[in-house]
Amino acid sequence: MDDDLDTPRAMALVFEAVRAANASLASGDVSAGLANGQAALECAAALGIRATTGRIISESALILAGERDRARSARDWAAADRIRDELVAMGYRVEDTQGGTRLYG
Hints:
This protein is mainly alpha-helical.
């Protein structure tokens, strides 16, 4: 089977989908981010690579994380804390980074 499956090209497609997902999420396009993320997971699964940690972050959680980032930028700490508590209640671990709110399932 040497190069018949073109595994390097398949892996490049996985990483391309991940980059597209990250770019979409960074620009605020949650739907496209989720779609590209799901495509990356499906391509990886086809190659026998499965996610073993975490879970897919829901669209509503990603929207809340964006709202939290806006509240933090506006120094509305009460709103940011309320949103963090809501995300925690949804089952996510919330981490503040220079790049914004990160969620872990």
